[in-house]
Design goal:
The complex is a heterodimer of chains A (376) and B (99). Chain A is α/β, with parallel strands linked by helices. Chain A is 35% helix and 12% strand. In chain A, strands 7-6-5-4-3-2-1-8-9-10 form a 10-stranded mixed beta sheet, with helices on one face. In chain A, helix 1 packs parallel to helix 2 and helix 8 packs across helix 9. By secondary structure, chain B is an alpha+beta fold. Helices cover 39% and strands 20% of the residues of chain B. Chain B contains 4 helices and 5 strands; from the N terminus they run E-E-E-E-H-H-H-E-H. Chain B has a 3-stranded antiparallel beta sheet with strand order 2-3-4. In chain B, strands 1-5 form a two-stranded antiparallel ribbon. Chain B is globular and about 35 Å long. Classes of the chains: A alpha/beta (376), B alpha+beta (99).
Chain lengths: 376, 99
């Protein structure tokens, strides 16, 4: 049950830009794979259907008129769209840069050459979860590893920046050092990103087989710190075990020294996305984030994006979230880490607790320690 | 840059006007971005290849109360910076170009 907030939210949301600088667009609800921890599928709030080309192109013209700078094309698998080149041309025509999130398996020379030729492709993110087919395919399905590697090599041949991404789960946590060697040495990538499978979408049905145990989480943190030491500056993470290890270490040091609260500590400040970007589902619903697919703010080509961005009550409610003190939550009662904690991701908070305005239990240091976790 | 030069904004560059008339100029071909104040926005909007730098300076002096003496130098420096970043060019004199 959601807890009742004791502190009233400020009446006025913080001022934001006239329009978002960037958007994440799920241009398709189709995918050639069915990964066991995919956040996108098996979400009862989502209508899984694709919009026709002209709907997207019309929307891109609106983005161009608003001065949107960057768009990330996601899915599903964006390369599955037969009209991908036409969509990208629409972005270029409307003066935007773009990137794509992919499993790599549908990337061929023709589309890679086209993307490179636009001069506007910032990167293509390709998921690589293992150093070999056995590990990678364990959650992604047979043939996925070969497809990913082939896709990466194709992109490299055409000079497109490849941002490899490893999602850490129970079947690959033991393989992370091999993954690093494979991506950084064998494939010669400059760096690679990592995150962890979270309790979202398809993962909810496979949580026991996929989500890390406390011991495995500890193992992941220690391994990633070792990898970071071996390959300085080549490991990228905005969430997951590596950022947990860094943040929790800081929090524990601060607690031990009775240090003053962190500048963003003690409140739900863990997510700044609602002030910078916004997302669109494959069916055209405008949502704050791909991890909050149920919060429908409007619909493209029916509602003005600028109006949604500036005036949506639900979006402005999210923007006021950083004013909510953690001391309002029973969940945080008596926690010595409150002055240093940001409450983390609202998407995971919703998935795990049923309310957005709540700290994410997944990111709770106290809980990690109480369940037997030890910081590396 | 001469006072008689006619600067022209690179049409691919995006002007993102934010609240309070501050703005970001963004070149999607290079990913370069430049923040600017309301005077910079006014200059940018007048870089149409028809107005000279002197015309733009006169417009700024007329449009912004209390514009400092250095406005001519400031506009010149701003247009030069835009030019160096590839955000702007100069409209060529047609006769000179044809010759």
């Amino acid at each position: 049950m959601p807890e009742t907030l004791q502190t009233p939210l400020p009446a006025v949301a913080p001022r934001v830009m006239r329009a978002p600088r960037s958007l994440v667009l799920e241009i398709t609800a189709r995918c050639n794979l069915r990964c066991r921890y995919c956040y996108f599928f098996n979400n009862s709030a989502v209508e899984y259907r694709d919009l026709p080309t002209d709907e997207w192109l019309k929307f891109f013209a609106e983005l161009g008129s608003l001065g949107v700078m960057r768009v990330t094309l996601a899915g599903g698998e964006p390369f599955i769209r037969e009209d991908l080149a036409a969509l990208v041309e629409g972005l270029v025509r409307n003066r935007m840069r773009f990137s794509l999130l992919s499993n790599g398996g549908l990337i061929d020379d023709e589309i890679a050459a086209f993307l490179a030729g636009t001069g506007r492709c910032e990167y293509v993110q390709v998921s690589v979860d293992g150093s070999c087919a056995e590990v990678h395919d364990s959650c992604r399905g047979k043939g996925a590893f070969d497809g990913a590697v082939c896709g990466i090599r194709t992109l490299q041949r055409h000079g497109i920046f490849v941002a490899a991404r490893t999602t850490i789960h129970r079947n690959n946590v033991h393989d992370l050092e091999n993954v690093a060697r494979f991506l950084l040495e064998d494939l010669g990538l400059p760096d690679f990103g990592n995150n962890v499978a979270g309790y979202l979408g398809a993962c909810c049905a496979n949580a026991q087989d996929v989500l890390l145990t406390i011991e495995e989480r500890q193992q992941a943190m220690a391994t990633l710190l070792r990898i970071e030491e071996k390959y300085p500056g080549r490991l990228v993470a905005q969430a997951g075990p590596l950022t947990d290890a860094r943040m929790w270490r800081r929090m524990e040091d601060a607690r031990a020294q009775e240090a003053p609260a962190f500048h963003n500590g003690g409140r739900l400040t863990g997510c700044g996305c609602p002030s910078n970007k916004i997302s669109v589902r494959a069916d055209g619903a405008i949502v704050p984030c791909n991890m909050l697919e149920h919060v429908v703010l409007g619909h493209i080509n029916r509602d003005s994006l600028a109006d949604v961005w500036q005036h949506s009550p639900a979006l402005n409610q999210l923007r006021r979230r950083p004013a909510i003190p953690l001391s309002d939550f029973e969940f945080c009662a008596g926690c010595p880490y409150v002055p240093y904690c940001t409450g983390n991701c609202p998407g995971l908070a919703y998935s795990l607790t049923g309310t957005v305005d709540h700290p994410s239990p997944d990111a709770c240091l106290r809980r990690f320690l109480e369940e037997g976790g030890v910081l590396p | 840059m001469n006072a008689t030069d006619k600067p022209i904004a690179n049409p691919v560059v995006v002007l993102r006007e934010e609240f309070d008339d501050w703005a970001v100029l963004f070149n999607p071909d290079t990913a370069d971005a430049l923040g600017t104040n309301p005077v910079g926005v006014a200059v940018w909007k007048r870089m149409d290849g028809k107005r000279t730098v002197a015309d733009i300076v006169a417009d700024v002096q007329a449009g912004f109360e209390g514009a400092p003496e250095s406005v001519s130098k400031d506009v010149d420096a701003f247009v030069n910076a835009l030019s160096n970043l590839g955000f702007a060019g100069l409209e060529l004199d047609r006769k000179a170009a044809d010759a």
